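Q: Trace token order:
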Amino acid sequence: MRTLTPEQNRIALEKVVTLNRKPDELFDLLAGLADFDNEANKKAKYLGIGCGFLCVFAVILIFVLNNVEGNTPKILLAIVIIAAIIVGIIRSKILAFDVSDDLRRFVIPVLSLLREDVDPEQPIKLRLDLTPSTDSAHLKSEGPAKGVYGNVQEYQYQHPWVDCETILADGNRLRWSVVDNIRKRVRKKRKSTKTKIKRKTVIDVELRSREKKYGVLAEEAFNPSSYETREKGSSIALRNVVISTSLDPLDPQALMSVILAAYARLQPLKKGGVA
């Protein structure tokens, strides 16, 4: 398994970080961490299976060797128990470096797509929170679910987990952010517990012309979109809301489609100042 640089090690442990790097440096830093996380997750999975097998084997030995005399059975049982403990400790240490799959399945693909369109000499400002969206730090409220029959507990989470700002190759400034708003309902029954998730992901994109060489194309002259729009001078802001019932990583296209829609509205100014 690959090793981490000191900075990657710090990011993996702290999970919340603000970076200000040139595009290639930023991509290499985070891509290396994402590859490590992918390998670590696979290793932790196999270690978990191994630990479970050793625990089951230890229980079987206890029953099988219960009436067997001598020290050999006791030594064998002790070896199995110690091995299970060691495997469990190794797995827990690996999981301490676990970061959200959003890094590997969303952030890295997005940075890869944007890398060709950003100014290579201008730094990308990126704030990441790679903790789980249902971490207690993001809990906004909890209590009995209203209007629902039965013993149902409701938890509301808000997780602003990525915010990015960069200068594009044409001089325009791009900023985008993603916030997860999650409602988790847990229904407890006598023999089972059911959990339902509703996630509302808010994607905000702002595109601004620094040199006032661009203007916003009037919406009536453009194909209407389903995005919430806010215009001011030579800048445009779009919002896309994605509803889902799982905590799987967001599809990168959910962001890229908003960026493309914003760019389609921001056009070079013609003579007379009309886009």
About this structure: The longest strand covers residues 172-188.
